[in-house]
Amino acid sequence: MTYNLVSVILTIVVMFIGFLALEENIKIINANTLNVPVTHTQQYTLEFQESVAGIQVVEKDNLFIERSVEGFPVLYFRKFSTGVCLENECRPLLIILYWTVTGRYLGFELPQGEFLSKTEHEPFVKKEYEELNKLLSNSYSTLANFSLEELVEPVTNEEEVDGVSGATRSGILDYCVDGAVFTTYTLWHLVYGDTRRKIIDNTKSEMTPELLELILESNNKEDRKWALSNSNKFLETSKSIQDKIFDLIDKGDELSGFIIEGISQRYLEVDSIQEKFYSEFKTGPFSVKRAIIKKLSQSGYLTPTVKRELVLSLEKESNDRLIGEILDMLFSHGITEKELLRSLTSMLEHENIMVSHKTFSYLNGLNIKDREIEKRLKIYLSDK
Questions:
Q1: pTM assigned to the model
Q2: Which of 57, 179, 226, 292 has the least CB density, counted as fewest CB within 10 Å?
């Protein structure tokens, strides 16, 4: 019996053992964005442009959307048939990939009898499927930065990795299942390719305040960030979305700054929304206060109420750094109302030299004809 025949028989035996082990189809599904029941599935035929084995492939295929009784998209999936090459041989791979409504990777499923394999056609074990799921969950994987040819070092010996001659680059190993570099790479690019982009576009096109609220309730921080990034168009028209967003700001966690920064200038200049921001400023922690002042400095408009309340807040504020930032923001908006300028003169007596000097420079530069303001400026100069 020749060596090649022995190799073929051993390969068949290993694959047969792997097949027998698959009494049920392999399926790993992570926590979904929406915790609502699915009532029906819809199928759409779209044109996809995917990178398969380093080649751009354009094809028409089906995208499936599982929906709730209200018609909300709950999750998406697509059935792929692609080639996975091992030891210069390729066999078709059938796999179903799942995404959440935000385009986040949700999981994968292999039809009954189908399995993933490594070099020597060795089937994945449970631990390796779990590792693959973890690797595919990493949207920031370094695999995004490499082409197929760059996965391996230039050929220096006869070593082969996933059917590609050469040793795997050391920087790649931590992002791939051992012995399945090409498989991991191919699947990762399918997860984060054109299908994901079309899923995100579709969810945005179907977005309603009710669906947005459901996404904001997700336990996944990235889901909530995605929802917040797409909340602006409902901020002015939906009170429930307003309340939800300001409730999240009120928590004062790391999402607070993200929310504040993401509010568009258009909505920030709506009086009711800007005044809600000031309400959060009054009660929020230092990080929230700073984020709000930074955001207000980007606005082309301050409501009279917010302007007045901020001026009056200066005497009560104990943090010199924040006082300086409030003053910079107010001065950038051009405070000219005499009542407010008189209130600002209290900052001329502030013990922090930077605060008092900043206030003097602004007031003195206005040349306001007001006895009280002129008197306070003279006192400031006489004390120097």
A1: 0.81
A2: 57
Q: Per residue in 158-187, pLDDT tens?
A: 545 554 445 677 678 889 999 888 889 989
- 312 Cβ contact partners less than 8 Å away, ≥ 6 residues apart: 343
Instruction: For residue 116, give both structure tokens.
Output: 């993933």
Name 92's bridge partners: 83
- The amino acid occupying position 160 is E
Residue 100 CA to residue 196 CA, distance in Å, equals 9
d(CA 250, CA 186): 43
Cα angle at 9 between 7 and 11, to 5 degrees?
70
Taking only the tens place, the pLDDT of each residue in 100-129 is 999 999 999 999 888 998 877 789 999 999
Residue-wise burial string across 314-340, b where 16 or more C-beta atoms lie within 10 A, e elsewhere: beeeeeeebbbbbbebbbebebeeeeb
* Residue 252: other Cβ atoms inside 10 A: 17
Element housing 46 (H / E):
strand 40-52
Q: Could you tell me the residue ranges of all domains in the chain?
A: 3-197, 207-382
**CA atoms in the 13 A half-sphere facing the CB of 15:** 15
CA neighbor of 80 nearest in space, from 120, 123, 111: 111
Query: Please, are residues 323 and 350 in contact by the beta-carbon 8 Å criterion?
Result: yes
Q: Which residues make beta-bridge pairs with 64?
A: 43, 77
3-class DSSP state of 117? strand
Mean of pLDDT values over 218-227: 94
Q: How many CB atoms lie within 10 A of CB 217?
A: 14
Name the residue among 201, 213, 207 with its Cα closest to residue 72. 207
* Burial tier of 140 (Cβ tally within 10 Å: 0-12, 13-18, 19+): exposed
Nearest to 110 by CA among 13, 22, 196: 22
Question: What long-range pairs does 204-213 form, CB within 8 A, spacing at least 24?
Answer: 204/230, 206/72, 206/73, 209/234, 209/237, 209/238, 209/240, 209/241, 210/70, 210/72, 211/72, 211/73, 211/101, 212/241, 213/240, 213/241, 213/244
The topology under which CATH files domain 207-382 is Leucine-rich Repeat Variant (1.25.10)
Summarised one tens digit per residue, pLDDT across range 293-306 is: 999 998 889 999 99
